[in-house]
Amino acid sequence: MTNTVAPDPSARPPMVPLATLLGRELRGSKSEKPVVRFGHANLAKRGEDLFLIKPECIRVPGNSSSTFSVFAIFDGHNGVSAAVFAKEHLLDHVLSAIPQGISREEWLRVLPRALVAGFVKTDIDFQRKGEVSGTTATLVVVDGSTVTVGCVGDSRCILDSRDGVVSLLTVDHRLEENAEERERVTASGGEVGRLNLCGGQEIGPLRCWPGGLCLSRSIGDTDVGEFIVPIPHVKQVKLSSAGGRLIIASDGIWDALSSEAAAKSCRGLPADLAAKLVVKEALKTSGLKDDTTCLVVDVVPSETVSLPSSPRRNQNKFRSLLFGKRSQNIVGKLVNKLSSVGSVEELFEEGSAMLEERLGSDFPCKTNSSTFRCAICQMDQAPNEGLPVSPSPFCSPTSKPWEGPYLCEECRRKKEAMEGKRPSATAVSR
Protein backbone atom coordinates (compact mmCIF):
# COMPACT_ATOMS: atom_id res chain seq x y z
CA MET A 1 0.00 0.00 0.00
CA THR A 2 1.38 3.33 -1.04
CA ASN A 3 1.02 6.28 1.29
CA THR A 4 0.12 9.62 -0.38
CA VAL A 5 0.56 13.02 1.13
CA ALA A 6 -1.89 15.74 0.25
CA PRO A 7 -0.22 18.91 -1.04
CA ASP A 8 0.02 21.77 1.41
CA PRO A 9 -2.04 24.61 -0.07
CA SER A 10 -0.05 27.12 1.96
CA ALA A 11 3.29 25.96 0.56
CA ARG A 12 5.07 28.55 -1.54
CA PRO A 13 6.13 27.69 -5.10
CA PRO A 14 9.83 27.06 -5.49
CA MET A 15 12.04 30.09 -6.07
CA VAL A 16 13.04 30.64 -9.69
CA PRO A 17 16.65 31.72 -10.23
CA LEU A 18 17.19 35.18 -11.69
CA ALA A 19 19.05 33.73 -14.66
CA THR A 20 16.02 31.56 -15.49
CA LEU A 21 13.66 34.54 -15.35
CA LEU A 22 15.92 36.58 -17.60
CA GLY A 23 16.21 33.68 -20.01
CA ARG A 24 12.45 33.46 -20.25
CA GLU A 25 12.29 37.16 -21.04
CA LEU A 26 14.76 36.78 -23.88
CA ARG A 27 12.88 33.82 -25.32
CA GLY A 28 9.69 35.88 -25.39
CA SER A 29 7.78 33.66 -22.97
CA LYS A 30 6.32 36.77 -21.34
CA SER A 31 3.75 38.71 -23.33
CA GLU A 32 3.02 41.72 -21.13
CA LYS A 33 2.32 44.98 -22.90
CA PRO A 34 5.14 47.51 -22.92
CA VAL A 35 4.91 50.45 -20.58
CA VAL A 36 4.13 53.83 -22.15
CA ARG A 37 5.62 56.93 -20.51
CA PHE A 38 5.25 60.43 -21.92
CA GLY A 39 6.00 64.07 -21.40
CA HIS A 40 5.34 67.33 -23.21
CA ALA A 41 6.65 70.88 -23.43
CA ASN A 42 5.65 73.89 -25.48
CA LEU A 43 6.22 77.61 -25.89
CA ALA A 44 3.76 79.81 -27.78
CA LYS A 45 4.57 82.52 -30.30
CA ARG A 46 1.17 82.76 -32.03
CA GLY A 47 -0.84 80.34 -29.91
CA GLU A 48 -1.77 78.11 -32.87
CA ASP A 49 -0.12 74.85 -31.71
CA LEU A 50 -2.31 72.31 -29.92
CA PHE A 51 -1.59 68.80 -28.71
CA LEU A 52 -3.58 65.76 -27.60
CA ILE A 53 -2.57 63.14 -25.02
CA LYS A 54 -4.91 60.20 -24.30
CA PRO A 55 -2.87 57.46 -22.63
CA GLU A 56 -5.66 55.02 -21.69
CA CYS A 57 -8.11 54.63 -24.55
CA ILE A 58 -10.17 51.41 -24.50
CA ARG A 59 -10.58 49.34 -27.65
CA VAL A 60 -13.14 46.93 -26.13
CA PRO A 61 -15.56 48.60 -23.68
CA GLY A 62 -15.17 47.16 -20.20
CA ASN A 63 -11.93 45.34 -21.02
CA SER A 64 -9.05 47.13 -19.32
CA SER A 65 -6.51 44.92 -21.08
CA SER A 66 -7.49 46.41 -24.46
CA THR A 67 -5.96 49.82 -23.79
CA PHE A 68 -4.05 51.86 -26.32
CA SER A 69 -2.55 55.35 -26.24
CA VAL A 70 -3.01 58.30 -28.59
CA PHE A 71 -0.78 61.34 -29.03
CA ALA A 72 -1.20 64.14 -31.55
CA ILE A 73 0.07 67.58 -32.53
CA PHE A 74 -1.92 70.14 -34.52
CA ASP A 75 -0.06 73.18 -35.87
CA GLY A 76 -2.62 75.71 -37.01
CA HIS A 77 -2.16 78.52 -39.50
CA ASN A 78 -4.30 81.50 -40.49
CA GLY A 79 -6.02 81.13 -37.13
CA VAL A 80 -6.45 78.38 -34.58
CA SER A 81 -9.98 77.16 -35.31
CA ALA A 82 -8.97 74.26 -37.60
CA ALA A 83 -6.49 73.01 -35.01
CA VAL A 84 -9.13 73.19 -32.28
CA PHE A 85 -11.65 71.35 -34.46
CA ALA A 86 -9.17 68.62 -35.38
CA LYS A 87 -8.14 68.12 -31.76
CA GLU A 88 -11.79 67.71 -30.74
CA HIS A 89 -12.98 65.46 -33.58
CA LEU A 90 -10.19 63.69 -35.49
CA LEU A 91 -9.71 60.74 -33.13
CA ASP A 92 -13.45 60.09 -32.87
CA HIS A 93 -13.77 60.08 -36.67
CA VAL A 94 -10.87 57.63 -37.01
CA LEU A 95 -12.29 55.24 -34.43
CA SER A 96 -15.79 55.41 -35.92
CA ALA A 97 -14.37 54.03 -39.19
CA ILE A 98 -13.20 50.82 -37.47
CA PRO A 99 -15.74 47.96 -37.34
CA GLN A 100 -16.87 46.88 -33.90
CA GLY A 101 -16.25 43.45 -32.43
CA ILE A 102 -13.05 42.60 -34.27
CA SER A 103 -9.87 41.15 -32.80
CA ARG A 104 -6.86 43.26 -31.87
CA GLU A 105 -4.93 41.95 -34.86
CA GLU A 106 -7.73 42.91 -37.24
CA TRP A 107 -8.14 46.26 -35.47
CA LEU A 108 -4.49 47.07 -36.10
CA ARG A 109 -4.78 45.90 -39.70
CA VAL A 110 -7.67 48.24 -40.54
CA LEU A 111 -6.35 51.19 -38.51
CA PRO A 112 -4.31 52.69 -41.42
CA ARG A 113 -7.43 52.76 -43.57
CA ALA A 114 -9.50 54.24 -40.75
CA LEU A 115 -6.94 57.03 -40.40
CA VAL A 116 -7.55 58.01 -44.02
CA ALA A 117 -11.32 58.06 -43.56
CA GLY A 118 -11.04 59.99 -40.29
CA PHE A 119 -8.75 62.68 -41.69
CA VAL A 120 -10.97 63.23 -44.73
CA LYS A 121 -14.18 63.37 -42.68
CA THR A 122 -12.61 65.87 -40.28
CA ASP A 123 -11.69 68.08 -43.23
CA ILE A 124 -15.17 67.85 -44.78
CA ASP A 125 -16.87 68.69 -41.49
CA PHE A 126 -14.59 71.63 -40.79
CA GLN A 127 -14.98 73.09 -44.27
CA ARG A 128 -18.75 73.11 -43.75
CA LYS A 129 -18.13 75.79 -41.11
CA GLY A 130 -16.92 78.16 -43.83
CA GLU A 131 -13.76 79.19 -41.97
CA VAL A 132 -10.45 79.58 -43.78
CA SER A 133 -7.89 78.44 -41.22
CA GLY A 134 -5.97 75.20 -41.60
CA THR A 135 -3.82 72.87 -39.57
CA THR A 136 -1.23 70.18 -39.84
CA ALA A 137 -2.06 66.97 -37.99
CA THR A 138 0.17 64.17 -36.77
CA LEU A 139 -1.75 61.44 -34.95
CA VAL A 140 0.13 58.59 -33.25
CA VAL A 141 -1.55 55.42 -31.94
CA VAL A 142 0.49 53.15 -29.66
CA ASP A 143 -0.99 49.69 -29.05
CA GLY A 144 1.51 47.41 -27.35
CA SER A 145 4.64 47.42 -29.49
CA THR A 146 2.75 48.54 -32.60
CA VAL A 147 2.97 52.23 -33.50
CA THR A 148 0.72 53.70 -36.21
CA VAL A 149 1.22 57.28 -37.42
CA GLY A 150 -0.95 59.35 -39.75
CA CYS A 151 0.18 62.83 -40.81
CA VAL A 152 -0.58 65.77 -43.06
CA GLY A 153 1.69 68.80 -43.11
CA ASP A 154 5.09 69.14 -41.49
CA SER A 155 4.66 68.20 -37.83
CA ARG A 156 7.10 65.32 -37.69
CA CYS A 157 7.28 62.08 -35.68
CA ILE A 158 10.61 60.30 -35.30
CA LEU A 159 11.56 57.01 -33.66
CA ASP A 160 14.76 56.74 -31.65
CA SER A 161 15.34 53.02 -31.09
CA ARG A 162 17.17 51.71 -28.06
CA ASP A 163 20.29 51.08 -30.17
CA GLY A 164 20.45 54.75 -31.20
CA VAL A 165 19.07 54.42 -34.74
CA VAL A 166 16.80 57.36 -35.66
CA SER A 167 14.07 56.81 -38.25
CA LEU A 168 11.35 59.06 -39.62
CA LEU A 169 7.75 57.84 -39.28
CA THR A 170 6.18 60.75 -41.17
CA VAL A 171 6.62 62.53 -44.50
CA ASP A 172 6.94 66.32 -44.66
CA HIS A 173 4.34 67.76 -47.03
CA ARG A 174 6.21 70.97 -47.79
CA LEU A 175 6.11 71.98 -51.43
CA GLU A 176 9.68 73.28 -51.22
CA GLU A 177 11.03 69.85 -50.28
CA ASN A 178 8.62 67.35 -51.83
CA ALA A 179 8.84 67.13 -55.63
CA GLU A 180 6.24 64.37 -55.83
CA GLU A 181 3.70 66.54 -54.05
CA ARG A 182 4.48 69.50 -56.31
CA GLU A 183 3.69 67.34 -59.32
CA ARG A 184 0.45 66.12 -57.78
CA VAL A 185 -0.74 69.64 -56.95
CA THR A 186 -0.05 71.01 -60.43
CA ALA A 187 -1.64 67.95 -62.07
CA SER A 188 -4.78 68.57 -59.98
CA GLY A 189 -5.07 72.19 -61.10
CA GLY A 190 -3.00 74.13 -58.60
CA GLU A 191 -0.12 76.47 -59.37
CA VAL A 192 3.18 76.23 -57.50
CA GLY A 193 5.48 79.23 -57.26
CA ARG A 194 7.10 81.75 -54.97
CA LEU A 195 5.64 85.03 -53.83
CA ASN A 196 6.06 87.72 -56.47
CA LEU A 197 7.03 91.22 -55.41
CA CYS A 198 6.78 94.31 -57.54
CA GLY A 199 9.23 94.02 -60.40
CA GLY A 200 8.84 90.25 -60.66
CA GLN A 201 11.26 89.34 -57.88
CA GLU A 202 10.39 86.00 -56.28
CA ILE A 203 10.99 85.45 -52.59
CA GLY A 204 10.28 82.88 -49.92
CA PRO A 205 9.46 79.17 -50.15
CA LEU A 206 7.39 77.52 -52.85
CA ARG A 207 3.68 78.01 -52.29
CA CYS A 208 0.46 76.73 -53.80
CA TRP A 209 -1.76 79.28 -55.51
CA PRO A 210 -4.48 80.32 -54.94
CA GLY A 211 -4.00 80.83 -51.22
CA GLY A 212 -0.21 80.85 -50.92
CA LEU A 213 0.07 77.80 -48.64
CA CYS A 214 3.51 76.22 -48.28
CA LEU A 215 2.03 72.79 -47.57
CA SER A 216 0.48 70.33 -49.99
CA ARG A 217 -1.63 68.52 -47.39
CA SER A 218 -3.58 69.83 -44.41
CA ILE A 219 -6.97 69.87 -42.72
CA GLY A 220 -9.05 72.95 -43.51
CA ASP A 221 -7.68 75.72 -45.75
CA THR A 222 -10.98 76.19 -47.54
CA ASP A 223 -9.65 79.23 -49.43
CA VAL A 224 -6.70 77.39 -50.98
CA GLY A 225 -8.28 74.75 -53.18
CA GLU A 226 -9.09 71.10 -52.69
CA PHE A 227 -5.91 69.87 -54.31
CA ILE A 228 -4.49 70.63 -50.87
CA VAL A 229 -5.71 67.30 -49.53
CA PRO A 230 -6.34 65.90 -46.02
CA ILE A 231 -5.33 62.35 -47.03
CA PRO A 232 -2.59 61.35 -44.61
CA HIS A 233 0.65 59.53 -45.11
CA VAL A 234 0.35 56.48 -42.84
CA LYS A 235 3.10 54.30 -41.45
CA GLN A 236 2.77 51.37 -39.06
CA VAL A 237 5.74 49.70 -37.39
CA LYS A 238 6.33 47.12 -34.70
CA LEU A 239 9.08 47.96 -32.26
CA SER A 240 11.70 45.45 -31.24
CA SER A 241 11.59 43.90 -27.79
CA ALA A 242 13.83 46.74 -26.61
CA GLY A 243 11.13 49.36 -27.25
CA GLY A 244 11.93 52.88 -28.38
CA ARG A 245 11.31 56.60 -28.00
CA LEU A 246 8.94 58.67 -30.13
CA ILE A 247 9.50 62.41 -30.53
CA ILE A 248 6.46 64.17 -31.99
CA ALA A 249 6.88 67.89 -32.60
CA SER A 250 5.67 70.86 -34.61
CA ASP A 251 7.88 72.57 -37.17
CA GLY A 252 9.03 75.03 -34.52
CA ILE A 253 11.30 72.17 -33.42
CA TRP A 254 12.23 70.74 -36.82
CA ASP A 255 13.12 74.10 -38.35
CA ALA A 256 15.77 74.38 -35.64
CA LEU A 257 16.90 70.78 -35.09
CA SER A 258 17.50 67.75 -37.28
CA SER A 259 15.89 64.47 -36.31
CA GLU A 260 19.24 63.13 -35.13
CA ALA A 261 20.02 66.26 -33.11
CA ALA A 262 16.64 66.19 -31.36
CA ALA A 263 17.00 62.52 -30.46
CA LYS A 264 20.59 62.87 -29.28
CA SER A 265 19.85 65.93 -27.14
CA CYS A 266 17.57 64.04 -24.75
CA ARG A 267 18.79 60.45 -24.64
CA GLY A 268 18.88 58.93 -21.19
CA LEU A 269 16.39 61.39 -19.71
CA PRO A 270 12.83 60.63 -18.55
CA ALA A 271 10.17 61.57 -21.10
CA ASP A 272 8.96 64.70 -19.31
CA LEU A 273 12.47 66.14 -18.97
CA ALA A 274 13.36 65.03 -22.50
CA ALA A 275 10.51 67.06 -24.01
CA LYS A 276 11.60 70.16 -22.14
CA LEU A 277 15.20 69.71 -23.24
CA VAL A 278 14.24 69.33 -26.92
CA VAL A 279 12.32 72.61 -26.76
CA LYS A 280 15.25 74.26 -24.96
CA GLU A 281 17.70 73.07 -27.63
CA ALA A 282 15.46 74.39 -30.41
CA LEU A 283 15.22 77.79 -28.75
CA LYS A 284 18.96 77.89 -28.19
CA THR A 285 19.49 77.22 -31.89
CA SER A 286 17.05 79.65 -33.49
CA GLY A 287 15.09 81.49 -30.81
CA LEU A 288 11.30 81.55 -30.51
CA LYS A 289 10.30 82.23 -34.13
CA ASP A 290 7.24 79.98 -34.16
CA ASP A 291 5.04 78.01 -31.79
CA THR A 292 7.22 75.22 -30.46
CA THR A 293 5.62 72.01 -29.20
CA CYS A 294 7.17 68.63 -28.37
CA LEU A 295 5.77 65.33 -27.12
CA VAL A 296 8.13 62.55 -26.05
CA VAL A 297 6.69 59.04 -25.74
CA ASP A 298 8.74 56.14 -24.40
CA VAL A 299 7.53 52.63 -25.23
CA VAL A 300 9.60 50.40 -22.97
CA PRO A 301 9.42 46.70 -22.07
CA SER A 302 7.88 46.00 -18.68
CA GLU A 303 11.17 44.63 -17.31
CA THR A 304 12.70 48.09 -17.80
CA VAL A 305 10.99 49.00 -14.53
CA SER A 306 13.88 47.16 -12.86
CA LEU A 307 16.49 47.78 -15.52
CA PRO A 308 18.42 51.00 -16.13
CA SER A 309 17.15 53.51 -18.65
CA SER A 310 19.99 55.95 -18.06
CA PRO A 311 22.90 56.44 -20.48
CA ARG A 312 25.23 53.44 -20.79
CA ARG A 313 28.07 55.08 -18.86
CA ASN A 314 25.89 55.05 -15.72
CA GLN A 315 24.51 51.52 -16.14
CA ASN A 316 27.24 49.59 -14.27
CA LYS A 317 26.78 51.66 -11.11
CA PHE A 318 23.01 51.27 -11.31
CA ARG A 319 23.24 47.49 -11.78
CA SER A 320 25.55 47.16 -8.82
CA LEU A 321 23.19 49.01 -6.51
CA LEU A 322 20.11 47.13 -7.72
CA PHE A 323 21.31 43.57 -8.28
CA GLY A 324 24.67 43.23 -6.53
CA LYS A 325 27.95 42.17 -8.09
CA ARG A 326 27.01 38.53 -8.66
CA SER A 327 24.14 39.48 -10.99
CA GLN A 328 25.93 42.21 -12.92
CA ASN A 329 27.09 39.96 -15.74
CA ILE A 330 23.66 38.39 -16.23
CA VAL A 331 21.85 41.73 -16.26
CA GLY A 332 24.53 43.30 -18.43
CA LYS A 333 24.05 40.61 -21.06
CA LEU A 334 20.29 41.16 -20.96
CA VAL A 335 20.67 44.92 -21.47
CA ASN A 336 22.99 44.36 -24.42
CA LYS A 337 20.63 41.76 -25.82
CA LEU A 338 17.58 44.00 -25.48
CA SER A 339 19.34 46.79 -27.35
CA SER A 340 20.11 44.57 -30.31
CA VAL A 341 17.32 41.97 -30.47
CA GLY A 342 15.62 42.24 -33.83
CA SER A 343 14.88 45.59 -35.42
CA VAL A 344 11.89 47.81 -36.11
CA GLU A 345 9.52 45.87 -38.35
CA GLU A 346 7.62 47.87 -40.95
CA LEU A 347 4.05 46.61 -41.15
CA PHE A 348 2.49 49.20 -43.46
CA GLU A 349 3.32 52.41 -45.32
CA GLU A 350 1.29 54.33 -47.88
CA GLY A 351 1.22 57.98 -48.87
CA SER A 352 -0.91 58.06 -52.02
CA ALA A 353 -3.43 60.88 -52.35
CA MET A 354 -5.84 58.62 -54.31
CA LEU A 355 -8.72 57.39 -52.17
CA GLU A 356 -9.26 54.19 -54.15
CA GLU A 357 -5.70 53.20 -53.28
CA ARG A 358 -6.13 54.07 -49.61
CA LEU A 359 -9.57 52.75 -48.68
CA GLY A 360 -9.27 49.44 -50.52
CA SER A 361 -11.94 47.30 -52.10
CA ASP A 362 -12.77 45.27 -48.99
CA PHE A 363 -13.90 48.19 -46.84
CA PRO A 364 -17.19 47.14 -45.14
CA CYS A 365 -20.14 49.10 -46.50
CA LYS A 366 -23.32 47.04 -46.26
CA THR A 367 -25.36 47.51 -43.09
CA ASN A 368 -27.84 45.03 -41.66
CA SER A 369 -30.65 46.83 -43.43
CA SER A 370 -30.99 47.77 -47.09
CA THR A 371 -28.86 50.89 -46.63
CA PHE A 372 -25.17 51.37 -47.34
CA ARG A 373 -22.61 53.07 -45.11
CA CYS A 374 -20.29 55.69 -46.58
CA ALA A 375 -16.67 54.68 -46.01
CA ILE A 376 -15.71 58.24 -45.07
CA CYS A 377 -18.54 59.94 -43.20
CA GLN A 378 -20.00 56.66 -41.82
CA MET A 379 -23.54 57.80 -42.62
CA ASP A 380 -26.12 55.22 -43.68
CA GLN A 381 -27.85 56.02 -46.96
CA ALA A 382 -29.83 54.36 -49.70
CA PRO A 383 -27.61 53.43 -52.66
CA ASN A 384 -29.26 55.92 -55.02
CA GLU A 385 -28.14 58.78 -52.77
CA GLY A 386 -24.49 58.25 -53.62
CA LEU A 387 -22.40 56.21 -55.99
CA PRO A 388 -24.30 53.36 -57.65
CA VAL A 389 -23.43 50.03 -56.12
CA SER A 390 -22.86 46.83 -58.05
CA PRO A 391 -23.88 43.42 -56.74
CA SER A 392 -20.24 42.57 -55.98
CA PRO A 393 -19.34 42.03 -52.32
CA PHE A 394 -16.88 44.92 -52.53
CA CYS A 395 -19.58 47.53 -53.26
CA SER A 396 -17.92 48.70 -56.48
CA PRO A 397 -20.09 50.86 -58.75
CA THR A 398 -20.90 49.78 -62.27
CA SER A 399 -20.82 53.17 -64.00
CA LYS A 400 -17.66 54.75 -62.60
CA PRO A 401 -13.97 53.76 -62.73
CA TRP A 402 -13.95 53.46 -58.96
CA GLU A 403 -12.80 50.29 -57.28
CA GLY A 404 -13.32 51.40 -53.72
CA PRO A 405 -16.22 51.15 -51.27
CA TYR A 406 -19.47 53.05 -51.24
CA LEU A 407 -19.27 56.85 -50.99
CA CYS A 408 -22.17 59.18 -50.36
CA GLU A 409 -22.75 62.08 -52.73
CA GLU A 410 -20.89 64.66 -50.65
CA CYS A 411 -17.87 62.45 -50.07
CA ARG A 412 -17.80 61.53 -53.76
CA ARG A 413 -17.69 65.23 -54.65
CA LYS A 414 -14.84 65.69 -52.19
CA LYS A 415 -12.93 62.80 -53.77
CA GLU A 416 -13.35 64.21 -57.28
CA ALA A 417 -12.30 67.69 -56.20
CA MET A 418 -9.13 66.37 -54.54
CA GLU A 419 -8.25 64.58 -57.75
CA GLY A 420 -8.82 67.69 -59.88
CA LYS A 421 -11.87 66.22 -61.63
CA ARG A 422 -14.04 69.23 -60.84
CA PRO A 423 -13.28 72.87 -60.03
CA SER A 424 -12.78 73.71 -56.37
CA ALA A 425 -15.69 75.56 -54.81
CA THR A 426 -13.34 78.32 -53.69
CA ALA A 427 -10.71 80.21 -55.58
CA VAL A 428 -8.61 83.17 -54.48
CA SER A 429 -6.55 85.06 -57.04
CA ARG A 430 -2.83 85.26 -56.57
From TrEMBL:
<feature type="domain" description="PPM-type phosphatase">
    <location>
        <begin position="30"/>
        <end position="299"/>
    </location>
</feature>
<keyword id="KW-0460">Magnesium</keyword>
<dbReference type="InterPro" id="IPR036457">
    <property type="entry name" value="PPM-type-like_dom_sf"/>
</dbReference>
<dbReference type="GO" id="GO:0046872">
    <property type="term" value="F:metal ion binding"/>
</dbReference>
<keyword id="KW-0464">Manganese</keyword>
<protein>
    <recommendedName>
        <fullName>protein-serine/threonine phosphatase</fullName>
        <ecNumber>3.1.3.16</ecNumber>
    </recommendedName>
</protein>
<keyword id="KW-0378">Hydrolase</keyword>
<keyword id="KW-0904">Protein phosphatase</keyword>
<dbReference type="GO" id="GO:0004722">
    <property type="term" value="F:protein serine/threonine phosphatase activity"/>
</dbReference>
<dbReference type="InterPro" id="IPR001932">
    <property type="entry name" value="PPM-type_phosphatase-like_dom"/>
</dbReference>
<keyword id="KW-0479">Metal-binding</keyword>
<dbReference type="Pfam" id="PF00481">
    <property type="entry name" value="PP2C"/>
</dbReference>
<dbReference type="InterPro" id="IPR015655">
    <property type="entry name" value="PP2C"/>
</dbReference>
<comment type="similarity">
    <text>Belongs to the PP2C family.</text>
</comment>
